[in-house]
Structure prediction request, 606 residues.
Amino acid sequence: MSDLISDVEPKKDSKKAAYQVLARKYRPQSFEDLIGHGAMVRTLNNAFASDRIAHAYILTGVRGVGKTTTARILARALNYVGPDGADEGPQMAMTEEGRHCRAIAESRHPDVLEMDAASRTGVGDIRELIEGVRYAPVEARYKVYIIDEVHMLSTAAFNALLKTLEEPPAHVKFIFATTEIRKLPVTVLSRCQRFDLRRIDPETLRDHLARIAQQEDVNIAHDGLWMIARAAEGSVRDALSILDQAIVQHTANARSEEVSADEIRSMLGLADRAGVWDLIDACFKGDAKTALDLFRDQYDAGAEPSVILRDLLDLVHLLTRVKAAGPSAAAHGPAGEADASRAKGLADALEMNALTRSWSLLMKGLAETNVAPDPAAAGEMALIRLSFAADLPTPDEALRALKKNTNGGRGAPAIERPSVEKTAPKAEQIAPTAPPLEPQPPGLEPPAAQRPPAGAPWLREFRDVVHLAGERRDAKLRTELESYVHLVNFSEGRIELRLHENAPGDLAGRLTQRLKEWTGRQWIVTVNTQAEGAATVRDARMAEVMAHPLVQKTMEVFPGAEVTMIREPEAVTAPAPVELDDDDKPVDPDDDFPALGSLEQKPGNA
Prediction:
């Protein structure tokens, strides 16, 4: 049941022995060989040192983490006698093979009895075990009963075992192993000392796979070992079985000296990592067509739809961690340098609401993919939902827009009966309205598909974004955009930039949120740390001013003078006409009722 590595190289016989799979060939033979279970080893070591050895142990954990192997090693430690016959009592440190070690490891020792509860579940089998408890051990110090998959015993069998389990003879020890600890009666659990054998983390598992590959004289790509460790899901036996398969497949193909990551990816039916990044990027941009094409490419290459969605979930989780805890969060887990860099740029351009919503949609899509008769179709539907949800407003944004468009923000909305024409909401009913920056020149209007919503500003260049921030009275954002942003690329709906080292860390995220509020559409703002980018708006404006002949002449007249501030001239607008009432008094434009004047009744009024 365990598949942990033994650092001792197996002995080579003179005759060619039958092939032994890696999971059996590298089974641990001592506590020093166990990996990932340091807490259990420390507890047992203290118990043996203080002579506080329990009479019953229960080992629980998922498949392949070392339950049966640990039980056999514990049985060897309880009955350890040196090769010279020196009996110093139970020993945790078994540096040499003792008198009983080989027989216990090969499950043929008369005093160490292994029982498979999955095939012997009845009370009659337990009665036979109880009858043997009365007799002293034949050769060893203790009589050890190892019961594997103990949760498979019947209720009557458990009841028959309780009395003996609570008060066994001094020469008897019980070791139970199970993958379903919740199925055991509490009466059994209370009589045992419990150890939880947890999953082996991917980093530790990858290092052990690398050592095994080195002992097997096989060269495997680093990324390939990561794929095996992740696919094993913490089970060492599964990892060794996959590694065994990868070595055999590579030997059969014999295309190169190294087992490449592509070979392992193809064998496991995994998705290409770079392709998954492109896929999640297309979904967040709302480009459903590109997302479907990339999904079909991955599927045709052998990746299962559920595996693709799980990889997308991993990326969304990575992006959420980076968004919540900063770029340092990308260092935890199997994310490489390329993943960490790309995650930071994409996380800055997304809001936390969009990431959490994407997680929920992908989880729902994964559940549907696992039960759908056509998993590929279910996967495509999940991607379509994710793509079209990218531009949807969050609940708080929709509520603000609803309040703003309800009678100008005053009073309760008029109640109308729904009709066929009014069932679909219009774009101007959702997007917040804003006056245009300036009249659009003829011949430069964008295509209809890229045209902003009605009433929203049309941003043709990055200076329009800076100007819009000033119009919306966000002085802080405007100053930061002028001083800290080096523009790399600007297109409709997408801004790529490099930030100055003194720029605040949330500048890209705040810019994305403000653009969505002001324009009524989703903008993708990415940070490129590699590109140089253009000069900042402030530096460019300063260079433009300093190049003016009048300024140059002024600097010549006043040597040593410095330009400390550039103030743009404000446009002079004509005052709006004032509307007067019948008594030649100004009318308040925000007043819902006409001026009533005094309360005195005028002549001629009823």
